[in-house]
Protein: SLAM family member 7-like
Organism: Astyanax mexicanus
Amino acid sequence: METKLQLIFTLSTLISITGSSDVFRAVGDSVQLEMQNPRAETRDLSWIFNGSKNVLDYIKKNNDIDLSPNYRDRVEFNNETYSLTLKNLQKNDSGLYEVIIFLRFSRYIKRFTLSVFDPVKSPLLTFQQNPDSCNVTLTCRGHDLSISSSCYNTTCEEKEVTSPGGVALSLSVLDSSIVCNHSNPISWKKTTVELEIFRYLCPSEDAVSPPAGESAGVSVCLVKTGLYSITLIILLSAVITVHLRERCNKSSN
């Protein structure tokens, strides 16, 4: 029993694995994957991509760096901190990066999960009114995501959806605006619509209705204007008629 415990203890000290660090970058950017505390007793190390593809191997004794041709001109290695810098990132660079450090009696492994994204574009926010009610349907679209929400007058339903890849789309109300927000871990864009426009689409039910005699206030105003115009025309006609008669009388004399 004691022998088994010693064997288990020995095996557990051979490999030390830390947790994976999540790293997010935009397409075209650079990223530096670095060790927090470089091991002074390091002999050799390897940087590996997705468990099988070697990025580089480093032999400390000879200060020899063996870099994969696939990463030539895109990778920088620091032989003091053992950090790896990847330049001009593309989305296919996303994945698991591991640095395996070979010590005298054990191995030390540090992992990084890199995710490379395109910057998001501004979302498209549209709305459509129900002709039979005050309900308005809002639709927010961005990337491969779409969400719809209902608004009644100026009260709107807030919604959010997130894709497995970390792209998020949300509809929310902020102050006097409806905000459609499109984001991923490295960027975000928004499109807004003012709530005020819905007041014109749907008058408030709390508004006080005018008395029956004033319900046609616009028409009464038009009638008054018409009467004033007719009166003015009659007066002008009378003045012109009197003037013409005076001229005729002078001509006959």
The chain has two domains: 12-117, 124-201. Residues 1-12, 207-221 have pLDDT under 50 and may be disordered. The helical segments are 2-14, 196-201, 217-252. The chain has three helices and 17 strands.
